[in-house]
Structure formats: C-alpha cells, structure tokens
Amino acid sequence: MLHSILSNSFAKHIKLNQTEEDKIEGFLKFRKLKKKQFFLHENEYTINSAFVISGCLRSYSIDKNGFEHILQFAPSGWWITDINSFIGQNKSILNVDALLDSEIYFLSRENQLILFDEIPKLERYFRILTENSLVSSRQRVLDNLELSAKDRYIKFCKIYPELINTIPQKQIAAYIGVTPEFLSKLKTEN
Predict the structure, then answer these.
(1) What domains can be seen in the chain, in order of their start residue?
(2) What are the two backbone dihedrals, phi and then psi, of residue 21, each rounded to the nearest 5 degrees?
(3) 15-63 per-position pLDDT tens digit
C-alpha cells in the first residue's frame, strides 16, 4: 500500500484506484538516507527522482570558488531530482543530499515512462508538478533580482514553514543569498 503522504500527493491532482496505487508501488523503491548522505552527485547520470516521505533533501551546485548555491529544498511530500539530467539523460550539474535523516521513495525514469503508458493520468500528475516547478523557479529568479534579503527570508518562511527550525541556518542563508550572520540579524529584527 502506498504511503499516505505519496497517496495524498497524487490525490491533489489525479484520482487513482487501489489497483493503480498498487501498480505504482511496485515500481517504487524505498531508501533511508542518513544526514549528509548523497542521493545524487554532480557529473553522474540521473536515472531516479526521489519523493520525500520524511526528513529533507536539497539540490545544489558548487561554483568554482567552492560556494554552494541551493536550488531547492524537498521536505516531506516533495519530489526532487536534477530534472535536466533526469529527462535528458545528461550528466547532472547538481548534487542532491539529505539535510536530515530521511526516508524516500525513488522512481527511475524508465519506470516512470512505463507507468505513463500503463496509467496515463500519471502524465497529468507529473506535468502539473513540472509546470508548478517551472513557475516557482522563474519566480525565485525574479525574487532574487527584485526583493530585499528580508523579503526573500519572509517568502522562504511562507514556502518552507516546517524547515525554519529544523535545518541549519547556514542552509537557509545560502538559499536566500545572504551570510549566516546577516540571516541571524534579519531574524532578530522580526
């Protein structure tokens, strides 16, 4: 039986019967990740996407100066991968690791495509997620260009309320583009 968190994620966009849920479950693999354990390293081929049951994963790149640039956090109920590598079967430019001890389901691209043929409404589900991700990504770029650090922090708190007190503050600072010291100052002002 599908975990209720994943079942609820599907139910937000499509209606699945028990037979369909059972079929999907047969294509998923379960994995536990310890804090700091990698799901994906840059320069690897991404064959899987991950759905977070518990904990939190993040995707990020590292620039030539060694600075991390966090693209996404994936708390419970979120999917995460390097989408360019996953769909295009190119080498990944992102790392994905666990910020907290985490439990995930992962689904290979090959199995996802099989499921699209066998349960066509899954294409609708993943299309909606992809569209929402594209909109969020574009909005984040605009926010980074237009919003103050304080407003970016406030927006982070609205998007990821469950992470404010559960992940290291330096991760939040890296996501909103400030130093941990500046984030500390911002938090004392609120």
Answers:
(1) 4-119 (2.60.120.10)
(2) -60, -40
(3) 999 999 999 999 999 999 999 999 999 999 999 999 999 999 999 999 9
